[in-house]
Description:
Blueprint: H1 7-11, H2 14-28, E1 42-44, E2 50-52, H3 53-69, E3 74-77, E4 91-99, H4 101-106, E5 112-119, E6 122-130, E7 135-140, E8 144-147, E9 150-151, E10 164-166, H5 169-181, E11 189-190, H6 197-205, E12 211-214, E13 218-219, H7 220-232, E14 235-239, E15 253-254, E16 257-261, H8 265-272
Parallel strand pairs: 3-4, 10-11, 10-12
Antiparallel strand pairs: 1-2, 4-5, 5-6, 6-7, 7-8, 8-9, 12-16, 13-15, 14-16
Amino acid sequence: MSASLSSTAARALLPALRETIREAAGLALPFFQAGSQTRARVWSKAGGSPVTEADVAVDTFLKVRLSSLLPEAAWLSEETVDDAARLGNDLVWIVDPIDGTRAFLSGHPDWSIAVALLIGGAPALGFVHAPVTDRFYEASAGGGATCNGQVISASRQTVLESARVTGPKPMIDRLARGGTKAGAKPSFVHVDRVPSLALRIARVAEGSIDIGLVSSDARDWDLAAADLLLREAGGVVSDLDGRATVYNRTDPVHGELVAVSGGMKDAVLDAFSR
């Protein structure tokens, strides 16, 4: 096991991390064109998903800066070759340099930069920054969650009726069918799907969405920062059996997930179980 870090020492990193993430956003924004194709060069990774020169620039910048802030921490990022050494490390940076690359390259504003620090396998610091809309979310374990410095909290919604829902349509349809079987009459308020998973969960944390659904195949870097935000705001990210997400495994891939306020969890999981 590597050296660990106290919660006080972790929180001492917050000012430098805010500055670093805003600087990273400054590298990406010149490539973004609202409503039209990015100025950045685009190519395909193995598997066919797109990557841009902005993704790589932000990833490289964050790796240098975050490694300088905490040299003993390991690294897991969407755009960096995985190093299995992270599995034995108590401290791990988990980074998505641009979460929602397809949105970024097509001119949609809902992309973000997501950064989390794991301590002992659990997110201890989490940041989700949406540069286009200038929404800067942050959380520290036990320290609450904020957006642009203002405390945020998940909604107080407790029933499926009139819940604001976003995510993949097949999952929304299954949720509605399960709710009907449970005796509810879900008449959801459908929120446009948020391309960035981190930002989708952050909006549950701020209370503007009641239920955020996530299809299978999300990675640690999509989730870890926003997971902490939602937990600190009074919500939860879990699988359809109610199990909390587990990070820094050999294969950092997840199945279907729900992101909900604490009061919605039982109703949502019950509907999916039917």
